[in-house]
Prior knowledge:
Distance between the termini: 90 Å
Mean pLDDT: 85
Low-confidence stretches: none
Helix content: 55-70%
Strand content: 5-15%
Strand order of the largest sheet: 1-2-4-3
Number of helices: 9
Amino acid sequence: MKHFLTLSLIAVLxxxxxxQKKDNKNQTAKADTAQLEVELLLNxxxxxxxxxxxxxxVLYDNAxxxxxxxxxxxxxxxxxxxxxxxxxxxxTDTVRVHVWRDYEDYLAAQKRIxxxxxxxxxxxxxxxxxxxxxxxxxxxxAAEHEFVHASSLAINDQLGHKNRWxxxxxxxxxxxxFIHPKDLAYLRKGEFPSMAELNGEFSGxxxxxxxxxxxxxxxxxxxxxxxxxxx
Length: 231
């Protein structure tokens, strides 16, 4: 009986020692793994910070623009989106956002700068780094739309002079200005606008339907032929 108790005690002690050794090995392995992970992190190249756009606001009145921060955020977001989707280079020059609160002053400046007055417009661009905006409740969305126009000049600097439907559709699609076709009475009736109408001058109801169907046209091209073909 005494020998049996002795053997049992030895067995228990051996088991404890074996378990302890296994635990020590596990802890050592975990420590080695943790140390390796730390070393890998230390040796990694630091993440490149997203380059922010340099945005300058030019205000043609004495009132402050409360939306400056929101407009800056929106333009930085869409700039990153265009860079990721289409590998468009990010703006390196200062982007100037010109804002008028008086509509007639806005139109007068538009005619002086571009040679044409687009009555009914809320924004336009004059070059790849200058955006003109009329101040209203949709100024943030208008800034995004016009910034896409400016960015698209990096793809084709003659795009706006060749195909108005594509010029507008690209900006509408990237700015996510979706209008459901069920909300458009003429589409429900099967009265589809022709490409000639969508390419028309900035005047008249039918010519401005591109703003309502531009997203759908772009989406159709992308889904059927890919973003690469769209570009």
